[in-house]
Amino acid sequence: MATRISRRKFLSSTAAAGLGVVAMPYLSRAGDRPVSSHGVQSGDVGADGGVVWARADRPSQMMVEVATTESFANARALPPIAALPESDFTAKMLLENLPAGQEIFYRVRFRDLSHIDIASETVVGRFRTAPADRRDVSFVWGGDVAGQGWGINPDDGGMFTFATMRKHRPDFLLHSGDTVYADGPIKSEVKLPDGKVWKNITTEEKAKVAETLDEFRAAHKYNFMDEHVRAFNAEVPIFVQWDDHEVTNNWSLSKQLPPTYKVRDISLLAARAGRAFHEMYPMRESIVEPGRLYRTLHYGPHLDVFMLDERSYRGPNGANLQDSYRPESYFLGPDQLAWLKRGLLNSRATWKVIASDMPLSIIVYDDATNKKGSEAFAQGDGPPRGRELEIADILRFIKASGVVNTVWLTADVHYAAAHYYNPDKAQFQEFDPFWEFVAGPLHAGTFGPNELDNTFGPEVKFIKAPGPDKQNLPPSAGMQFFGHVKIDGATGQMIVTLRDRADVALWSTTLDPKRM
Q1: Contact 461, 439 (CB under 8 A)
Q2: Digit-coded pLDDT (tens) for 196-250
């Protein structure tokens, strides 16, 4: 584990190191220089560091400087790392030994591998490390980007929700999945019901469903073309997870692919999608299980975030109605379930946020047209069955172990909601009351509301959805939603607000923490 150092020590060690390593000449001819093609990102930030990411347009070395001042007067140069064709010229670096609770500035440029005196222009980013003390913490969350054919439309302001979220200066974005729609082609024009035309920026790769590795990569790169996304990424770290559309709609290993796919092997598609996902986001990598997405992110004394993966270990979609826990009904799987229990039990943070890529009690059909087969946790009214057994297990464990202050955050269903889970209203009652908040889409079609089941007793405290007669509304309709969380450093209170893309506060509640 990296040793945490103070800002004073950081500055002194930086001054001793000097800056001559990266202050090298480069040719001024723009055509000869590498290009940083998609901005910069940071992610998985903790108290002593975080991961930074960038992409070049050719084989290069990524050169990074890090500082605690915007002037970079105290910059520390880090050893260069390669950006090669094998990773689509992406590179990411773990910055360590940074002071806690500090604004960190970094700048990135790429040096040509064949001509080391030729380098790209510099791109600057920033993030704030997690606090060691009980200061205020704020973050935003949501999911669902460029879905249902609604891509980047400059006439509508592009992916405008990212600009709105950026104004709040959050410590990070918790991205709840459907970061891309690899299964959703982007057409140049979409005719709207009122006769107007939605005009998308398009690319050749996004004209079809993603099947090759390069096509999956292109789905992510498409979003980075938006100026609001790039500006947001340069200032706000991302804690990212995936859901289904990073591969294809409602995928599990039993998925029957539609005829639009020439590649018929869902495992091969998922492997390619997973590689592209890891290449395109600044995640800390697991040594225990390379490619693993579930992880714990510690963000100061008040907050631990448990990022779940509800795709990689699930059994087949369908009617999971058995009353005993079996592989065909796995959703998290035994290993991930055990990891979550350990993490919750050992957490000393005031709040334990469980980042779920799907809601707990909203029914989502694998066959939405005929309302057949569940692809979510929810199996319909009644006692826990199939996939619900994992939720019953974890809720029972939380109550029996005395774990307090758990909050579930999610997206997926393309509307905003607040659900209060009350055991007095539930078929399964072995749990303490808790909240689940739903946000999104950030930039996709708006749907809903969906059915709820009563297994765990969700009470709808707020809902904002277009209604059954108005489905797949475009972003121009204004029903794009994100959530904002603020934790008061002094009291530990959590304020949760659901907002739309115009930054209107639709609903808010204040949660008082129980003391451990």
Answers
A1: no
A2: 999 999 999 999 999 999 999 999 999 999 999 999 999 999 999 999 999 999 9
Question: Which two tokens mark 81?
Answer: 């790392």
- Give one DSSP letter per residue of 388-403, joined into a string: HHHHHHHHHHHHHHT-
Angle, nearest 10°, between helix axes 388-401 and 334-346? 20
Listed residue (206, 225, 201) closest to 216, CA to CA: 206
Distance, in Å, from the CA atom of 120 to the CA atom of 130, rounded to the nearest integer, reads 31
First and final C-alpha spacing in the chain? 27
pLDDT in tens, 255-294: 889 999 999 999 999 999 999 999 999 999 998 899 999 9
| Distance, CA of 516 to CA of 511 (rounded, Å) | 15
- DSSP, residue by residue, 282-334: -PPPPSSSTT---EEEE-STTEEEEE--SSTT---SB----SS--GGG-SS-H
The 3-class SS string of 240-273 reads ECCCCCCCCCCCCCCCCCCCCCCCCCHHHHHHHH
Question: How far is it, in rounded angstroms, from Cα 204 to Cα 398?
Answer: 49
